[in-house]
Amino acid sequence: MKLLLIEDDPSMQAALQRALSRRGMEVQGCTDGKLALEQWLASTPDVVVLDLTLPGLDGLQVLEQARRRGLATPVLILTARGTVGDRIMGLNTGADDYLPKPFDLDELEARLRALSRRRPSAGAETDTSTTPQWVGGLRYEKDSGAIYHRDQVLELTPRELALLQALIAKPGHAVSKERLFELVFPGEADVQYEAVEVVVYRLRKKLAHTGVSLMTLRGLGYLLKVDA
After folding, report:
1. Beta strands in 97-217 (DSSP E)
2. Which domains does the chain have, with CATH numbers?
3. Phi and psi (nearest 5°) for 67?
């Protein structure tokens, strides 16, 4: 696993680099928010570990700019700012997981390996056909896992993409929250079912001008509907 560690505390960064390297990870460090995006683009990591309190740019600003530029790398926020409000803000900005300090190293490793398995094509219903799937103006290319609108790739986080792939594979049919949870948060028993609603909220905003709506069917789940 190739890991980018964005952490401004030198002792914390050095300790994590040593510990995670011993566990078979290739760790690159960055201590400055302004340089983080450049290093992110240059290193193409499998997972990014992001502290929130950084010099230059705050961690949330780094994350927001990364998502705006189409960087869909899974991100784990690792910070002492562990209030519920900070956690929700981080998830809404585009983070995929959140671990407050202090933390257990075994738990950090497990979360990082879970995120590394969540590649952009992960989470979709299995389908060996290479024929594109259409819902309104959305086109799902199953071979690459990408979803397009008007020939432009939708800029989605890995969790948003996994959820949309699951829905677009079942056009006109509701997919239960439980099933979406299994696809979007595989093997993450400590995450609550309500976390699906955060991903749905973010995805719904990104679909606002595509002609396709993400609908909630009470008691049934979610489905995609082509706008009239």
Report:
1. 97-100, 133-135, 138-140, 147-149, 152-153, 212-217
2. 2-116 (3.40.50.2300), 133-226 (1.10.10.10)
3. -65, -35
How does pLDDT run across 142-165, given as a tens digit for each residue? 777 789 887 788 989 989 999 999
Q: State in Å, rounded, how far the first CA of the chain is from the last one.
A: 45
Backbone angles phi, psi at 148, to 5 degrees: -115, 150
The whole-chain average pLDDT of the chain stands at 83
Q: Is 80 helix (H, G, I), strand (E, B) or coil?
A: coil
Q: Torsions phi, psi of 216, nearest 5?
A: -100, 125
**pTM: predicted TM-score of the whole model, two decimal places:** 0.54
Closest CA to 69 of 155, 151, 142: 155
pLDDT digits (tens, 9 = 90+) for 94-131: 888 888 888 888 889 988 988 887 654 433 343 444 57
Q: Mean pLDDT throughout 55-77?
A: 85
Q: What are the strands of the beta sheet with 138-140, ordered from one edge? A: 133-135, 138-140, 147-149, 152-153
Does the pLDDT at position 218 exceed 80? yes
Q: Which residue has the tokens 């600003």?
A: 61
